[in-house]
Amino acid sequence: MKKNFMLKCLISLGLLLFLTFMPHIMPASVHTAQASEIEKEKNSEARLNLKSITLATGKSFTLRVYNLDKDAKVSFKSANPEIASVNEDGTITGNKVGSTTVTATIRRGFNSASLTCDVTIGPPAFSVKLIHSRIIIGIDQSFLLEALIKPVNTVEAVKFSSKNPTIATVSTGGRVTARASGMTYVFAEIDATNQDGSRKFSSCSVIVTKPEEVGPLNEYFALHPELSMISEVELSNALFVFFNTLEAPTDNTNSDTGSSEVQETQITYNAMSADTSSETEKAAAATDADAVESEPGAKDNIESAEPSSAIEQKELSLVEKLDNYLNSIFDLAQLKQKYEERLQIVTGTITQ
Fold first, then answer.
1. Handedness of CA 5, 9, 15, 16 (dihedral sign)
2. What pLDDT shows up at residue 250?
3. Least confident of 111-115, 182-186, 283-287
């Protein structure tokens, strides 16, 4: 009897313990399953491609609904069509400066859900100008271009591009990075058009050279204000030929006409260098002859020194080559005189 009683007590105690701890074990697995299902539902929820958008008047953008069920239907509505209208496909068009909301309503059977997109409409840009018309940067260095856009409250962003990315690239924000020696152009463009239908833009010439040559080149342009007397197009074309023909790889984006101009300028520069060298050699020869006559043993020494002297004369710096090149095309001395005369007139007018 006692054994049976003890057995019944043990069984009862075991059942009691099992029932006591079971609620703490079972819900854990249930909660985990529910969390997994919730996460899956979140990832599959319908959503818009944008929750907010800024457009210029006259511009459009299409809203799209992602994770949409096959049997679901979507309709779009603008809270203020005068500011921004939307068609049945979700294409928003800016009509007037201001802010509004576009609502996408999703219907599936008797169920419906709404998604909203905040829309801001601003004025478009009508002019753009880069602050720098020419920059000089060393290889692997960068420079941030700044653009002046009108009106100042425009919502339109400038689109940057490089004529030759192998020489210099430009980011969407206007940061120019030098890649290889040469010269190219960076453009800042807006959607506004000219009378001929072309888009309005501003350009900046980018000269890429060795880092140690950046300072001397900048100093050269600063010390030669008479270069401003040359038309921007002529000077830019001359610099383009120099840096892409004499010092750097040729820019393959040139037209045939541009290539012929490069060859002609190359010949002119070579001829100029030859003339300069011949005059130098004549002067050196005359000096050497006088030295030979005055000193009997000097002839052999001079002859042995001539090759190294000739090599030294040919090793011109980049700035010296550029100065010789520009003088072969433009009369810089005459331009400097005209610049100083004009400066005196302006200064005298201001003084009076």
1. positive
2. 35
3. 283-287
